[in-house]
Amino acid sequence: MTERVLIFDTTLRDGEQSPGASMTINEKLMLAEQLERMRVDVIEAGFPISSEGDFESVRRISEKIHSITIAGLARCNKGDIDRCWEAVRAASKPRIHVFIATSDIHLKYKLNKSRAQVLASAREAVAYAKSLGPEVEFSAEDATRSDLPYLAEVVEAVIAAGADVVNIPDTVGYTIPSEYAERIRYLYSHVPNIGKAILSVHCHNDLGLAVANSLTAIQNGVRQVECTVNGIGERAGNASLEEIVMALKTRRDLFGIESGVDSREIFATSSMVTNLTGMIVQPNKAIVGRNAFRHESGIHQDGMLKEKLTYEIMQPEDVGIKESTLVMGKHSGRHALKQKYAELGFHLSEAELEKAYVLLKKVADKKKEIFDEDLIVTLRYALPVVPAVYKIKNVQSIAGNQVVATATLVLEKDGVLLKDSSTGDGPVEAMVKAVNRITGIEGKLAEFTVRSVTGGPDAVGEVFMKVDFDKASFIGKAASLDIVDASARAYVDAVNKSIHYHMALEAQNGSVEA
Ligand code: KIV
Ligand code: ZN
User: Fold this and answer.
1) Does the predicted model carry a pTM greater than 0.70?
2) Tell me: the pLDDT tens digits for 389-415?
3) Which is nearest to 168 in space by CA: 136, 188, 141?
């Protein structure tokens, strides 16, 4: 039987630490369900002590997802570990993931602790976590810049204390494959009890080597890799899940090791992460970029027509990109739409289908051809993640190089229409100010991205916004044939998320609905 490597997905924890990638609790639940569908082995759902919102999302994911392991992160102290256990204990397979830095740089400048103190904290934390839950992972933060004999000592101690998984992270993306391989081989040959735990790696991409390092680690005996969808994460991100999975699959001849991931769910998961975080993957991104399977040069196209093997090492279908068999348009019915969505990897309930259908009819009224990208974007907006407290009824804007930009908006709240106008340096700023006046909520536009979903003059424009509010930031998103309309909808989406977040925090003692 082929050997297996465990795929530990940390999109909801390390990925969510990417600047601007924050998700609401319902968005995290939605992504967790998709990760389960894709059959990752472990979901790291969050860092429960870090905020009420993180605690709540880990707890809710633990209650909902039962076929795979749910991990929560904790530092090596009792408070963190208790909070983590509280959040994951409802899971069928809970895991407490404790970490402490082991490099002298971190010991001296961050922790102000001696090596002996860190060793003791690690050992005690693992033993304590193990007394609460069935499965414990230990991470030696900044392991690749840690003194190797000391690292080996820590690894031996935490395994003796009960760690089931020991992670050797390249926290700052510093190592290169040959060096990492040597480090892992050293641990295998110098830690006497290493066989009692699964060795794991967690690679950051500061030098663009996260996937290469993860694959090298697998070749050297590591049997868990930590990664994120689309490679999102701190700074330059984490190792990209889809690249690791497809490298193992495509080069099975070389690795002889497989993951349990259903690669046909990759494209849907990647689209969902883009949608939820607003972090758009670059067109040339391996596996999931828009151009990953497109052949432009004449020589390549000629080769492809003669035999796909000439220029294609993977099939688009392997990652869930299907060639269209159904063309959607104004006259398409619900049944065809449902089938089309299924082809694209989205399995909709009747209620979801109905919402998507109604929205799509509106798009089809204005747009001749409906592309797969239009369908995916439509779906994002057909499935709102928070109930809309404010709904947009009307958007009017005047802009140009000879006039003062002005926006007038009509919003609806609890059946009441609220109208106001404002001027600004441009139509978007005028719109933001008008919404702030109506809602009395002071949001500040921190990031603004607009992209055309498909080509052509009648393309749908999609807007992602990061909006800073008093206590937290939220991603607002919307799509429309009109950019100012899309911007207003995205902004109001962020406002609704912020309102909902505060309502959820207030209801903290009861059941939280965020
Ligand atoms: O990068 C890192 O070292 C981490 C640990 C908490 C695993 O994210
Ligand atoms: Zn990390």
Assistant:
1) yes
2) 999 999 999 999 899 999 999 999 999
3) 141
